Amino acid sequence: MPFTRTRTSPVGRTVWYAGADAAPGSLLAGDLTIAEDQNPNGWFGVAVASNVLTPLRIEEMLPAVHDTFCAGRTDGSTACGCRSRAVARHGAEPMSEEDRKILTVVIGVNPISVSIVGRPDLHTGHRTIEDREALIASITDAGFRRTPFAAEHDPLEQRALEVAIGYDATTVRVAGDIHRTFRTATDRDDTVHRILTAGYRLSEDVRAAHPTLEGATA
Description:
Blueprint: E1 14-17, E2 32-36, E3 43-49, E4 52-57, E5 61-63, H1 82-90, H2 97-107, E6 111-113, E7 124-127, H3 129-141, E8 144-146, H4 155-165, E9 169-174, E10 177-182, H5 185-197, E11 200-202, H6 204-209
Antiparallel strand pairs: 1-2, 1-5, 2-3, 3-4, 6-7, 7-9, 8-11, 9-10
């Protein structure tokens, strides 16, 4: 959930509508601005035009964030495709418990390369459970699902998975101690390879919402 009633007022925040009828060209296809705080029924007032408010549930709203594959449109329209991809990811079928268990094993808690500020003597550590769970959440949210007997992955899927894993701060265990560090390129690339080899691919709807690599911003 991007916000709740217990946090700072979200009025003025830009969001995208992620309801079942969030088709391009619909009334709620553009950028939306939260104009009224959550009421006792759990709804927010969202401005869809200069003087029109539509009540939306928190589950129907996504943070309006342009992704790595943005086509670069900056005129306020949704033609860049970022909103369509966000809605597609939001509406993807949940990952099955079996596939989540397989992904847990694929990622594992094996030794990984590390780069810790102030500790040039440390080069390897063990992935923590917290890091593994964060990776699973990122991969799932990006729209990846396991496809038995999957065909060879394409460059777009590899790039999308690289973006999902990223270089975010993470935790590793070295000689019994927990260290805060950033994910290394070696760890990311190895993890991407193992996940793709295990048959995880972008779900059909999410894949259809992605552009080709040509014109996508790295």
